[in-house]
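Archive maintenance. Older records in this collection stored only the sequence; we are now back-filling the structure field for every entry so that each record is complete. The fields below show one back-filled record exactly as it appears after the update. Entries are processed alphabetically, and AIFM3 factor is next in the queue.

ARCHIVE ENTRY
Title: AIFM3 factor
Organism field: Nyctibius grandis
Length field: 541
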Amino acid sequence: VEVKIEVVIPEKERSKEEMSPNGKASPLIYKVNGTARHYHLEEHPIASNPYHNPKDVVEASVCHVKDLENGQMREVDLGCGKALLIKESGEFHAVGHKCPHYGAPLVKGVLSKGRVRCPWHGACFNIGTGDIEDFPGLDSLPRFQVKIEKEKVYIRASKQALQTQRRTKMMAKCISLSNYNLSSTNVLIIGAGAAGLVCAETLRQEGFSDRIVMCTMDRHLPYDRPKLSKSMDSHPEQIALRPKEFFRTYDIEVLTEMQVAAVDIKNKTAVFKDGFKMEYNKLLIATGNTPKALSCKGKEVENVFNIRTPEDANRVVKLATSKNVVIVGASFLGMEVAAYLTERAHSVSLVELEEVPFKKFFGERVGRAVMKMFESNRVKFYMQTEVSELREQEGKLKEVVLKSGKVLRADVCVVGVGAVPATGFLKQSGINIDSKGFVVVNKMMQTNIPGVFAAGDAVTFPLALRNNKKVNVPHWQMAHMHGRIAALNMLAHGMEISTVPYLWTAMFGKSIRYAGHGEGFDDVVIQGDLDELKFVAFYTK
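Back-filled structure field:
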């Protein structure tokens, strides 16, 4: 018996096919601050309607109706590409089979309550619409039409969608951009990481058609920051989250190398370091954090790096090749950099104040197992000590001196000793900042100031699964979700955050995935084999 899949355009997207007499899509109306505004819906080229070209559509019988039980998924081949066929509550659904984030096979993921969750990094998709509902990643899955005929299941799909395996949600465009005053915007987003970008995209997806300006101290458009320590020789354009044309198409303006020095909440104005001022109606603070520097003697020596930009990462790889590397701090960044450089460098040494890596986060037993894996890959650990001096020769780093008295040869040093929230510019603003410098927000990502929102690594927010305890969760996935929730609440949707935190780290071909928030655990229950690194650890209290 065969299964058949067909691409269906949801009602929402079909409306753009209804043309107005002049041949352009009829504009829809969206209210911003009570004013009716017109906008035209645009769609990313990869999400084009498959029915424009009948040659682009493929239909195939893929299985018998009894081949799948409820709650089962199967990857099926339509000849020119694959789809994921799902049966839940007696109904068949078909969507793209690869996660749009890094291409993981979703058939190995988890199906639960109408959603499929990616096996690698936890992104989550609605099986009925294909829409992304948890992050990381920006795109949704294409959805294909399924029909049952004579006990056979058929899928009808666009060849293009089968090949791209992703769908960018429909977005509004800004109306009459040329009429704007350069020094005022409806939405100003400070920071161009995941939180800032998802906020801007969500506003456009929800039909917001006014001006959006993002500003960043970085010289690049938003990029995939986790790759800086996991894939250090990536160039900026290889890790860009969206191409340049995307920002032009959807009128999301990005001001690069622009630093905000102060925010005047009374006059709703951001003051930039160069004196430029910009008025806003709604503000998102998504500045992330700033790496801590070493405070020892010789800290200004050349070839000592905090990895903050693609250029930093590229430079470290170049300098480390066949040379001696010292990494200070067994943080996620420090450990990932150590793992990446072992095959390239002559030697890799890691200096850490704790007795085992990740002790506060993963506990001592898991930390030790990870340390053992590193030692078997030639990484030398110097634990329970810190750096007392960086010595140079002709201005360049030559040796790292430890407080224990040990002297390490070093041509390059990477510092990963933690970070502080990049919120210094808000000190006199009246926006509520806690004693550690984090911006305090509620479940809707709102600060104490109306119209001012904050998201990402620089905030503390109430975590639903820990009885609304105020926490800071500096994970890539969480930054995406913060940006989405902030955008929806700028549009007065009243949406609260309830996401489960999730992070992953990858080292020597092994990946550790962590769900939840285990801060304050007093016992670790381990199932499986720690020595083989095939285990699950439960953090309990």
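Update note: The chain has four domains: 54-164, 184-290+421-491, 304-417, 502-540. The mean pLDDT is 90.
Entry marked complete.
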